[in-house]
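Nicotianamine synthase (Rubroshorea leprosula), 289 aa
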Amino acid sequence: MVCLENPLVQKVCNLYEKISSLESLKPSKDVDMLLTHLVATCTPPNPIDVTKLCTRIQEIRANLIKLCGEAEGHLESHFSSILGSFEKPLDHLSLFPYYNNYLNLSQLEFNSLSKHCPNLPTKVAFVGSGPLPLTSILLASFHLTSTYFHNYDVDPSANSMASKLVASDPDLLKRMVFHTTNIMDVTDELKEFDVVFLAALVGIDREEKVRVIDHLAKYMAPGATLVVRSAHGARAFLYPVVDPCDLQGFEVLSVFHPTDDVINSVVIARKHPTLQPIQCLQQPLLSPL
């Protein structure tokens, strides 16, 4: 049982105490400093297994992921507003502090997808696109340049901000659609998509994440591809972990755990023609490079 005697866990818990005591998680000097420190602590490859954490640390981890998710939402809204003030917002995307991370993550996801989908998708859904839909924008701009993207988010203000970013680009304006709805209310429409991306913070706890995945398994087209963001090692203090056995109704094709500055692991799965249970795997299908 991994608990406070682990130096990494000790450092994460100390940061959690400071982050949770902040009055606001909107961008500020203190918020930026603490979250930068937390990311720097959790990013280096670490063999820690978060499933073996003691109950107290599991609770802290769950709360920390929620706090990080809230802070990330504020950060994206803040920079989406800044970018939206430019005549051509897409020319200034690099102002976002994690732009390079998203650039590398979208490249990784495209590469992983290409290995299993030789034909480029014509229609993609991104679930949990938020106010700054960088993945959709980057994939549409550099990798899937004729694909149509349908972005789903429950927050109307997020979709309003996101729409403003692509409004000045005639090509993306034509190929980007924003839907303000809960993905759990989207049913037969899901059958239209060749690929569905599931954002890391859609379903912060495992039960909610599994409910979303089960819903996608029920309504996605047989043979369609699901791209899921997960986390591995110490990075699981920042984002939820998706285990292959959580993907009932899908065939897990690959799991990739980056060891560089890209935080999220990438899971590629294919919808079964019929729902089939899969076995939990003790080891990832694809080892980190």
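The chain has a mean pLDDT of 92. The CA atoms of residues 102 and 119 lie 23 Å apart. ok done for today
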